[in-house]
Design a protein that fits this description.
Helix 1 packs parallel to helix 2 and helix 7 packs antiparallel against helix 8. The chain has ten helices and eleven strands.
């Protein structure tokens, strides 16, 4: 389809319309704006800069032709015209534009797909960081397998909601999940602020570690501060939900083994005598109390107030000298 204009101003308006031309054949000598100026404005316009322009003019000097090509025209044909030549040039330039437009659309589609893949990759990375420590996630992304490490000195904290199992039997499933998520989210935020690594939740129990995967000397103090702060979080949660839940906490310090288990539904976990002892410190603790092993007490006694609790016999671990953690000094 061919459209014509009688002057440069009209040509510019038509080129900038919602249905721009695929190619413009442009004279130089026109009544208002000459062809050179029209070509210059076309090249400057964001929506018209890609429209191919062929000059078809009676100006035949080399300087005129050079000027037209420098302004961005793709061809320069002098009058009198040779119709077969003009048609051949027009077909070639239209075909070139069609192919260029197809390439452009393919590139746009590729860019869109690349952007979509990058978004999905970001989502995957965020999910990894929600599940795994950042250092472990980086190793996993690099293709490492059988990720494991021994830590000669770390601290493990267990927390359990007292009587929650019995209470949950009388509640709808959605309410149970809502309550657990509400309290555990507060604990997660505190752990992140202090620098503990939340390991997992087990039913209505919450578990964290300090001193791994990045070793640090104050791991026992971090767990002690975390434990004391958890009661603040519980009080705020109880006020918000009009409840009177209680928790008990256990902490132990010593050597720990950690690593990734699973290849599809993988998880970062910790094992060893210290982990088992921390679990027993929690299960033999009392509501509203924090029970710590002798190793933890020794590591924090200069900065925290402790009360001896005597020897506690624990399943699978044996007798453990324990202390109640009361407050910071």
């Amino acid at each position: 389809r061919v459209k014509t204009s009688s002057c440069g101003t009209e040509a510019l308006r038509m080129a900038a319309s919602h249905e721009p031309p695929d190619l413009i054949m442009l004279d130089v000598m026109m009544p208002d704006v000459d062809g050179y100026e029209v070509c210059r404005r076309l090249r400057e316009g964001e929506s018209t800069s890609g429209i191919p322009v062929i000059f078809l003019t009676g100006l035949i000097s080399a300087a005129d032709e050079r000027r037209g090509l420098e302004l961005g025209a793709i061809d320069y044909l002098a009058k009198p015209i040779n119709p077969p030549l003009v048609l051949a040039r027009t077909r070639n330039h239209l075909l070139t534009k069609v192919l260029r437009d197809r390439d452009y659309e393919r590139l746009r589609a590729l860019d869109h797909e690349k952007e979509r893949l990058e978004i999905e990759q970001l989502k995957t990375e965020r999910l990894l960081l929600n599940i795994l420590p950042s250092r472990i996630a980086d190793r996993l992304k690099r293709g490492e397998k059988d990720i494991a490490a021994d830590y000669p000195d770390a601290s493990i904290l267990f927390c359990d909601i007292v009587g929650f199992t019995e209470m949950a039997t009388a509640l709808p499933a959605k309410r149970v999940v809502q309550l657990l998520n509400g309290l555990f989210s507060r604990l997660d935020e505190r752990a992140e602020r202090l620098g503990l690594e939340k390991i997992k939740t087990i039913g209505d129990a919450w578990m964290a570690a300090a001193g791994l995967p990045i070793p640090r000397s104050d791991h026992a103090e971090l767990c002690a501060d975390m434990a004391l702060g958890m009661f603040e979080d519980l009080r705020a949660f109880n006020r918000a939900e009009a409840l009177d839940l209680q928790i008990r906490i256990g902490i132990s310090t010593g050597p720990v083994t950690s690593g990734i288990v699973g290849h599809t539904k993988f998880a970062y976990d910790v094992w060893g005598h210290t982990v088992n002892t921390a679990s027993r410190m929690e299960s033999t603790s009392k509501p509203g109390r924090i029970q710590v092993s002798a190793a933890t007490a020794q590591a924090i006694e200069e900065r925290f107030r402790l009360e001896p609790h005597g020897e506690v016999h624990t399943k699978g671990v044996g007798p453990v000298h324990t202390f109640w953690l009361l407050a910071r000094r």
